[in-house]
Automatic annotation (TrEMBL):
Membrane-crossing segments per the record: 23-43, 98-119, 140-160, 166-193, 220-243, 255-277
Functional description taken from the UniProt entry: Hormone receptor primarily expressed in adrenal cortex that plays a key role in regulating adrenocortical function. Upon corticotropin (ACTH) binding, facilitates the release of adrenal glucocorticoids, including cortisol and corticosterone. In addition, MC2R is required for fetal and neonatal adrenal gland development. Mechanistically, activates adenylate cyclase (cAMP), the MAPK cascade as well as the cAMP-dependent protein kinase A pathway leading to steroidogenic factor 1/NR5A1-mediated transcriptional activation.
Keywords: Cell membrane, Disulfide bond, G-protein coupled receptor, Glycoprotein, Lipoprotein, Membrane, Palmitate, Receptor, Transducer, Transmembrane, Transmembrane helix, Ubl conjugation
PANTHER family the UniProt entry points to: G-PROTEIN COUPLED RECEPTOR
Species of provenance: Huso huso
Record bears the keyword Transmembrane: yes
Location of the G-protein coupled receptors family 1 profile domain: 34-275
InterPro entries: ACTH_rcpt, GPCR_Rhodpsn, GPCR_Rhodpsn_7TM, Melcrt_ACTH_rcpt
Protein name: Adrenocorticotropic hormone receptor
Entry keyword annotation includes Membrane: yes
PROSITE patterns, per database record: G_PROTEIN_RECEP_F1_1, G_PROTEIN_RECEP_F1_2
UniProt-annotated location(s): Cell membrane
Domain of life, source organism: Eukaryota
Subunit-level organization: Homodimer. Interacts with corticotropin (ACTH). Interacts with MRAP; this interaction targets MC2R to the plasma membrane. Interacts with MRAP2; competing with MRAP for binding to MC2R and impairing the binding of corticotropin (ACTH).
Amino acid sequence: MDNSTHVTVNTTDCEAVEIPHEIFFAIAMVSLTENLLVVVAVIKNKNLHSPMYCFICSLSIFNMTASVSKTWENIMIVFSKMGHLYSRGELAMKMDDVMDALVCMSFLGSIFSLLAIAVDRYITIFHALRYHTIMTMKRVAAILAGIWTFCAASGVLMAIFSHYTIIMTCFIVLFLISLALIMFLYVHMFLLARTHARKIASLPGNTVHQKHNMKGAITLAILFGVFIACWSPFFFHLLLIMICPLNPYCECYRSLFQVNVILLMCNSVIDPFIYAFRSVELRSTFRKMFCCSGDIFCHAIQCLQLNSNIRLQ
């Protein structure tokens, strides 16, 4: 999905905004580090071995996929500008298709992971007594396998047939339908939350559990809002390619393509901050991870000092 792929015969006074490649690399490295920390934290802490955090791990891996794909694409652009890679060569075109497939897969995986998390929160809040019967780890594994298989296949198909208008249309329609479905689920969840809270408050020990689940739902609503803010400009870019490919005003917006890609990558940087800020258990796990690393470092220094003292004596 390189900007050069969508060149039109129309001229415009708006020059394409160029973002330094160093910024892409920096954002990608931060994203990879943060999301990898989330995955490691969930794996290490047995208290986080729950369906919701399995879906959050899936979301983190899809975020890393988007960052890696855009980073590799920018590396190819740098080599092309240096003359080490022919941008229209067979190898470069195939690699570009692979990167496009990964971006499409990352988008679909992110939105389906958010949808799975929303359904999980819905079941937790409104079917609390049957939650562990409904959301077993086997079903979670099957859901994740289905998401990854569908997203990988869809990403490949969209990358190969992206020049067909119908494929681009399906991509945008899927985006809008998924957004509408998640928004409906959250609105329905929050509208019924108060009524359901009154009913479940009469059960002993469920008030705190209910508040905890609502906090989780609010966290995921924030994630969803960030996802919309970061991905919508990119999809508006695709929409303009379809409806007004020769319009100079549309071309002006398309000159911001690299800015839209930066927003897309920023989504994978912001998400882990939301996890860490909203989840007490995840914050505690991060703290223990860093403290353990610090203790090992301090212990190594003490050993070196002790050895030096023994030698002096």
